[in-house]
Structure formats: structure tokens, C-alpha cells
Specification:
This protein is of the alpha/beta class. It contains 20 helices and 18 strands. Helix content is 37%, strand content 16%. A five-stranded parallel beta sheet has the order 11-14-17-10-18. The longest helix has 19 residues.
Length: 496
């Protein structure tokens, strides 16, 4: 047979579109043509494949070889197609049966010796192969990652000779059995380590219960970073779909997802991070910190020290839960449903309002410092809290009921009520959900409207205030939002 088809997968963002490798042999002068928008690494694959085939003792056809990577308008990159190209040539030349390739997809880079090297982005390809009803053949180093797609038949090999023996029926490969190496989670830091700060812990509970964004402001050393790092341990465990989304993102980003899977991510970029580092980008769009924090927490310490233009790019993903990176040739969509926790000082020196009078900042310096944060960005943060300095108590023991396990159980109950009622956390309610699930009494409605007018709150801020109130009601297992919930939610809005 002079024509063979092999199935593989490309990588576009967190998606893995199907690619069919077509190998055709024809009479004529020996040559090899590779078509289908291959980039440099893919063009070089013909040399790697030729050497691997010859090294393994197979015949490289001395004919006119045409390799087509379909669809032709989809850019192909990386060495992930090496194995599929090699199998296509071997099948087209009759050295392995072509019909055995129909229900299988292949990924893998070839060494000149024929050894299989791991590639990036295997998990999205595994999920796509499962949806297509095919098995997946990958290098052994990628097999544990591919096996996270439950229900998928995964085959693993170390060498092209093993793959050829499998398709020839000489030594069939056995389906890979997951070892569970990627499910070794680490314990989260415990909230019991934080001394005092009852108001901040209360705000942390509310943020976890409703997936609300949180801004902590206070002098240095009051525990803002310590509090933020405890938030992931208060959140409910990821379900299977959420965990696979997180692992897929880290798979394509080469972040080694899979150590401590399936834990919620906690990302803490430095304040010198650029816009592309935060939201993603590049000539070949890659995920940024907000995507790597998907289904987890993005902590921005020293918030005013970030470049203002960098912070402004957060406004859209905070609303939509995704980021779209557009280039002249590509338009890639990355998920970015993260929970923002930010920390800042009240002034450049950090001691504004300190009883000891240590602050020497002028009003102009304070205004310039705070002006680095725009109103629209602050509007999108549900909870604003001032963290005061606590009295020094070295070696103090935590009070009862303040550990992460107890708080997380309270959060889980509130989240369960939200899932049963509306199918999402309160922070993600849309306008129709607000009208349906955040109904106020005839007396509370005008009271809240007057309070919003006095504080100068925007309509967006008023909606977020309602969502926080709904979370406070859920924490108390109250069926309706009451005046006390609205009053407490108002305390978390900035007054400037």
C-alpha cells in the first residue's frame, strides 16, 4: 500500500485539534516533501525520522515521499509528530500493517537512535483522544500524565522498535496501568499559624465561601501574606473536571503540573512581572500567571508596585473568567477563573495611621501612591479590609476553632448550598442570577439604594455587595438576605 494515515494531535492553547498525517509513496527521484504549515521543528522532523528508521534496521523508501499534515491551514509546531510521521512512512512502505493504525493516536518525539522522547501538552491530547473514541500511544515518560484521562486506553513505549513490534503483532504493548504517582498532594498551610487578626480571618472565610476577590491593606508585618497563603486550604477540593482543567494548563506550560495533583494552584508573581507574564502572550501565545492560577488563587503582593498598565489587563478576565490573546495569525483563548487576593500598604512607608506616629509621608505622596490603582480595578474587588497591627505575643497558641480544617468545613457547607441553588459560587452570579437569588425585602431595597448613593458606589460595586451579602446569608444558612448581611457587606467596601 502506497498511502497510509496516522492520527495525531496539535496544540493550540489548551485545545488539541486533530491532525491526520498522510504518507504517500510515488515513483520518481527519491525525495521527501512535508506540507501542511509545518514550523521549523516540524520541518526538521524528516531528518530525525530518517535517521531513526535507518538506525532501527528498517528500510527508508528510495521513492518520492509526500507527507501531509491535515488540516493544511492549522500551524504545526514541535516534535510531537515525529512518531506519527515515522509510522506513516513504515505503513505506506508495507513494513507494518496500515489497518492497525485506524483506532489509535500517536504523540512523541524521536531521537536519532529511535528512542521516544516526551512532549508537552499530552493531557489535552489525551482528553481529546478519549472524546474521539481512540486509544493513545505516547512515550513512557508521558504515560502517567495521559492516564489522568480516566477511561482512555493508553499505550506507552520507549523505542520505535517497540511500537513497530506492537503494530506487527509480534510483541503487543499492554495498556498502561497508572501508578498514582501524580496524586501525591501536599498539606496546605494552616490558618492556626496566624495569631489574632479575627477580622481578617472573617474576611478570609467570606472570600472562600463565595469565591470573592479580596484586598488586604495594612502596615508591614501584620500577616497579609500569611493570611493569603492560607486561602487555598479553605477552598473546597477540585472536582475531576476542574482538576483536569488545571492539569491541562500546567501541561502545556511545562510547569510540571502533575506533582501534587489535584491541588488548587497558588500563584504569587513578583511585582516586576510584565503584562505578557501576567496574562500570557508571546509570538506563540502561552498561558500567563492568571491562567496558571485557574481554579485557584492569584496573590499580588505589594499591589501598587505593579505597573498600572499591567494591572489594568486584569479587568476583563476578572469579569469573564477567560483571556483571549489575539495575534495576526492566532487567536487563542485561555481559561482564567481565578480568585484574586491582593495586599498593599496604606502609604509608601507603610505606617499611615500608626499610633506611634511613624508615618512621614506627605498627602501628595499618599495620593500618588494610591492613584496607581484605578477605580475600575478596585470596583472588581469584593472585599476591602484594613489589617491592623496586633499586640506582640510571641509563642501564643492558636484559639479553638481557627484551624483550616474547621473553617474549610464551614466553607464547604456554604458552597454546597450555592451549588444546589444556582450551580456556581456567588461571585460568579450573572444579572439574572442576582435577580433570582439576591432578592431583598421591601424595606431593605431602598435602604441599600440610599447607602450606595451616600458611598458613591457604582452599579457594579452594588452588585458585588449583593453577592457578598448572599454569601454571608449562606454562611448562616439563612434563606434570605437580611439587613445585618447588607450592613456587614457594606463594611468591606472602600470609603474613598
Amino acid at each position: 500500500m502506497s498511502l497510509a494515515l496516522v492520527h495525531s494531535r496539535a496544540q493550540v492553547g489548551v485545545e488539541a485539534p486533530a491532525v491526520t498525517v498522510e504518507a504517500h509513496l510515488a515513483n520518481g527521484l527519491p525525495s521527501l516533501a512535508l506540507v501542511g504549515l509545518p514550523e521549523t521543528a516540524v520541518k526538521e522532523s524528516k531528518d530525525r525520522v530518517r535517521s531513526a528508521i535507518l538506525t532501527c534496521g528498517f528500510d527508508f523508501p528510495a521513492r518520492r515521499i509526500t507527507l501531509s499534515l491535515a488540516p493544511a491551514d492549522l500551524p504545526k509546531e514541535g516534535g510531537r509528530f515525529d512518531l506519527a510521521i515515522a509510522l506513516g512512512i513504515l505503513a505506506a512502505s508495507g513494513q507494518i500493517p496500515a489497518q492497525t493504525l485506524e483506532r489509535l493516536e500517536c504523540l512523541g518525539e524521536l531521537a536519532l537512535s529511535g528512542a521516544l522522547r516526551p512532549v508537552q501538552g499530552v493531557l489535552p491530547a489525551a482528553l481529546a483522544a478519549r472524546a474521539a473514541g481512540r486509544s493513545l500511544l505516547v512515550p513512557r515518560a508521558n504515560a502517567e500524565e495521559a492516564s489522568l484521562a480516566s477511561g482512555l486506553e493508553v499505550f506507552a513505549a520507549d523505542h520505535l522498535l517497540e511500537v513497530a513490534a506492537h503494530f506487527s503483532g509480534q510483541t503487543p504493548l499492554l495498556p498502561y496501568q497508572a501508578q498514582g504517582l501524580l496524586r501525591q498532594t501536599l498539606p496546605y498551610p494552616d490558618l492556626a499559624d496566624v495569631q489574632g487578626q479575627a477580622a481578617a480571618k472573617r474576611a478570609l472565610l467570606i472570600a472562600a465561601a463565595g469565591a470573592h476577590n479580596l484586598l488586604l491593606s495594612g502596615p508591614p508585618g501584620t500577616g497579609k501574606t500569611l493570611l493569603a497563603s492560607r486561602l487555598p486550604g479553605l477552598l473546597p477540593p477540585l472536582d475531576e473536571q476542574e482538576a483536569l482543567e488545571v492539569a491541562s494548563i500546567h501541561s502545556i506550560a511545562s510547569q510540571g503540573p502533575l506533582h501534587h495533583w489535584p491541588q488548587r494552584p497558588f500563584r504569587q508573581p513578583h511585582h516586576s512581572a510584565s503584562g505578557p507574564a501576567l496574562v500570557g502572550g508571546g509570538s506563540k501565545p502561552r498561558p500567563g500567571e492568571i491562567t496558571l492560577a485557574h481554579q485557584g488563587v492569584l496573590f499580588l503582593d505589594e499591589l501598587p508596585e505593579f505597573d498600572r498598565k499591567v494591572l489594568e489587563v486584569l479587568r476583563e478576565p476578572l469579569e469573564s473568567g477567560e483571556i483571549v490573546i489575539a495575534r495576526a495569525r492566532d487567536r487563542v483563548r485561555f481559561p482564567a477563573r481565578f480568585q484574586l487576593v491582593a495586599a498593599m500598604n496604606p502609604c509608601p512607608c507603610g505606617y499611615l495611621g500608626d499610633p506611634a506616629g511613624r508615618c512621614r509621608c506627605t498627602p501628595e505622596q499618599i495620593q500618588r501612591y494610591r492613584a496607581k490603582l484605578s477605580g475600575p480595578l478596585l470596583d472588581r474587588i469584593d472585599l476591602h479590609l484594613t489589617v491592623a497591627r496586633e499586640a506582640t505575643a510571641l509563642g501564643a497558641t492558636p484559639t479553638a476553632g481557627e484551624n483550616s480544617a474547621r473553617v474549610a468545613a464551614h466553607v464547604a457547607q456554604a458552597r454546597q448550598r450555592q451549588q444546589q441553588r444556582q450551580g456556581c459560587a456567588n461571585a460568579f452570579l450573572d444579572l439574572s442570577g442576582l435577580r433570582q437569588h439576591c432578592v431583598l425585602s421591601a424595606t431593605d431595597q431602598p435602604w441599600l439604594e440610599q447607602a450606595c448613593e451616600r458611598l458613591g458606589l457604582s452599579l457594579r460595586a452594588a452588585h458585588r455587595l449583593l453577592k457578598v451579602s448572599r454569601t454571608l446569608a449562606d454562611l448562616e444558612q439563612a434563606a434570605n438576605i437580611e439587613r445585618r448581611h447588607l450592613a456587614e457587606a457594606l463594611q468591606y467596601r472602600p470609603t474613598r
